[in-house]
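Forum: Protein Structure Q&A
Topic: Joint prediction for protein chains with partners

I've read a bunch of threads here and the consensus seems to be that you should model interacting components together rather than docking separate models afterwards. I'd like to see that in practice. Below is the full input, 411 residues plus whatever partners are listed. Could one of the regulars post the assembled result?
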Amino acid sequence: MRTEIFEIDTEGPGLYEFTDQVTRWTVGQNDGLLTLFVRHTSCSLLIQENADPQVRTDLQAFFRRLVPPSTDPAMAYLTHTYEGPDDMPAHIKAALLPVSLSIPVIAGRLMLGTWQGIYLFEHRDRTHSRQVVAHLQ
Amino acid sequence: MRTEIFEIDTEGPGLYEFTDQVTRWTVGQNDGLLTLFVRHTSCSLLIQENADPQVRTDLQAFFRRLVPPSTDPAMAYLTHTYEGPDDMPAHIKAALLPVSLSIPVIAGRLMLGTWQGIYLFEHRDRTHSRQVVAHLQ
Amino acid sequence: MRTEIFEIDTEGPGLYEFTDQVTRWTVGQNDGLLTLFVRHTSCSLLIQENADPQVRTDLQAFFRRLVPPSTDPAMAYLTHTYEGPDDMPAHIKAALLPVSLSIPVIAGRLMLGTWQGIYLFEHRDRTHSRQVVAHLQ
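Posted by a regular:
Agreed with the consensus. Here's the joint model:
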């Protein structure tokens, strides 16, 4: 069993890939299970297409439309707003998207599909340093 | 390896915290992985902010707007309605929110972030007794 | 520890149950943890009600309304559209729904609730062969 904490710096909303970091860290392991867990309630983990960057742009656009900033008239019912218009929408997106991911490792290979990348999905506007705990069994 | 079934009583929609129960149960474990699994299709597990209770109020308000009761004209297309107007919306919310959570344990400490609490998110109107299976490896 | 790759053939959008395959595969195991992981970014895993088929119809209808095809005027902002109108909506649904599931096994029994079935939720229109990795610890 091994554990690690990855630090991921973010500069505003969007998807930050860290597949390579995770892949390097699992090298040498035979069979096992990798678990990733993000220690925050205003960003998420996500496995998504790693080929066309427009997929990430569109994903972000969809979630911004589904959960607009609290200054948007459609969100006038929100009450937790004192940390800024991106605060409560970030919590909502963090509820809709994964906080943990489990990926099997077989014969030393992380079983991601060809088009799957691992991302930290940042929902807040200002810069953050995010912690992702990795656990390999 | 240890397993346990937590029983959580709910009295209508909302977030019921059970972080303390889980933390007490993992005490004494060195390194490992905690898995939580809810045995129902009309409530969810959720890790969310444990500080300002308005975050929970707002989360519940968002999901009620996203998936209103089946008596709402916007939901007239729903067909599974014989158990009441909160029935099918509960299944939809249970699809949108986690049924299982994986949290690493390092040096005897559950690796939750400072502001993360563990909740049972009830989607049904009437009282229920909910089962959450805990598994510690 | 055991691993397996389930192949699931799909013929258009909808929920394809494979609970029986998983249950058969876990028979004989004592205590442990089952992890399922889908190796694609345009379909999902889902645990949902296995009784009334209308639940699955309604779930599909909800997600089609929440994320309509990119030819729908409401989705005019999408840019990743060259693989067809079901392409980017499939990625969005794959973000909203689980890519991995963790289910405890106690005394040889998968701890699913009475009404819980395991499904592959296909989001694409044309036929596909989907891979789900199973890992039993």
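The CA atoms of residues 9 and 129 of chain C lie 4 Å apart.
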